[in-house]
Amino acid sequence: MLIELAAEEPQSPVVPVVPEIVIGLICFGVIFFVFYKKLVPSINKVLEERRAAIEGGMEKAEAVQAEARQTLESYKEQLAEARHEAARMRQEAQEQGAALIAEMREEGQRQREEIIAAGHTQIAADRKQAAELLRQDVGNLAIELAGKLVGESLEDHARQSRTIDRFLDDLERQAEGGVPAQGQGSEAGR
Amino acid sequence: MSNDQVLAFETDCHLFNDCGFPSPSEFSFLFEPLFTIGSFEVNKPMALVVLSTLIVLGFFWKAFSKPAVVPGKFQMIAEAGYEFVRRGIARETIGKKAEAYVPLLVSLFFFIWIMNIWAVIPFAQFPATSIIAYPAALALVVWSTYMTLTFKTHGFVGGIRNLCVPSGLPKGIYVILTPIEFISNIFVRPLTLTVRLFANMFAGHLLLLVFIIGTWYTLGSVVGTFYAATSLVMTLLLTLFELFIQALQAYVFTVLTATYISQALEEPH
């Protein structure tokens, strides 16, 4: 075999031969053609789809997260509002209660004063009436006593009456003026 | 298997047997036809290239023809590879307009990578890209792509300007720079693309061969066994290294392609 080849003047390894170039071109051409027409578009489509799917998923997740955040915020807001409302109501109730108590107290005070005033009036009236009665009785008694003492009936009724009245008025005047002029007729005032 | 040109007729040669080291040579890269279709002879690298095509297509067809939004394990692996080229190479280098060139770059990267990987696959053990015609074919594709793009984007004069007159330099420099840019961008680029990939894989294969043949050759005597063990360790280390280089070269080829496309699309300043 070696002899055979050697006799033929061996092909130089650095000189390309045309049939082999042609085979190389054809083989590469076939590979390129299949890649160009079918495989690269096919895989690129899928890679693009995958990218889109991943990005779509991420977008969806982001949207869900944003919604959740929004919901949480609205809940928080509502909660804060409710708290605020409750505090406001409590305050209002407190104020109302205080006002009610004050009003009641005022009313009580007023009623008490009224009752006291009514009492005073009643007492004054009673006293006045008692004084009136007392005056008549004292008059009669005095007349009776005086009649018995002098032994005669005092006929002149009108005069008697006038004398008694004057006397009593004097007494009364002494009683009223008795407080400022203490020394003078303090016994009569009592 | 990979070194059948050598091993097929030198298997009995060992150290101290009065026969020389059957070093790998350009014959290591020449193959008898496996079979013929009509009058066309199909050899092992050709078969590997066709197989690479079927593997790349089969793998990505299974993963991407009916893709799911929630990917299975298989689709996930394919997606990782695809996104590596799309983001790591295309967008990184070309920027906003990258999407249109993703099919080209993905095809290039995985086709080259699989062709390279054959170097360490048992029973194949030959990188298809160490046959210069295959890198050349791919470089030709890249060259026509970026040339077409240049003239399509900028028109004829603008295209020439884009290729030969880098902007923003003092005027005197252009006398020297324009011819250099012209040669560099139009002729050297495809050449270096080809040679870089080819030479890396060629050299890698030679290295592996040296140590594999060395392991076999030094066996047979007590002393030789130690040599053989050392050589075997080297083979394993170099296999790992080659795995790295295979991916790296596929990456470099693809990145450079992206760079050329990006330059072709660049707005004139």
From TrEMBL, chain A:
PANTHER family listed in its UniProt record: ATP SYNTHASE SUBUNIT B, ATP SYNTHASE SUBUNIT B', CHLOROPLASTIC
Family designation: Belongs to the ATPase B chain family.
Protein source organism: Streptomyces radicis
Subunit (UniProt): F-type ATPases have 2 components, F(1) - the catalytic core - and F(0) - the membrane proton channel. F(1) has five subunits: alpha(3), beta(3), gamma(1), delta(1), epsilon(1). F(0) has three main subunits: a(1), b(2) and c(10-14). The alpha and beta chains form an alternating ring which encloses part of the gamma chain. F(1) is attached to F(0) by a central stalk formed by the gamma and epsilon chains, while a peripheral stalk is formed by the delta and b chains.
Organism lineage string: Bacteria, Bacillati, Actinomycetota, Actinomycetes, Kitasatosporales
Membrane topology: Single-pass membrane protein
Recorded GO CC terms: plasma membrane; proton-transporting ATP synthase complex
Spans annotated as Disordered: 169-190
Presence of the UniProt keyword Flavoprotein in the record: no
Any Pfam family the entry gives: ATP-synt_B
Keyword list, A-Z: ATP synthesis, Cell membrane, CF(0), Coiled coil, Hydrogen ion transport, Hydrolase, Ion transport, Membrane, Transmembrane, Transmembrane helix, Transport
Localization per Swiss-Prot or TrEMBL: Cell membrane
Protein name: ATP synthase subunit b
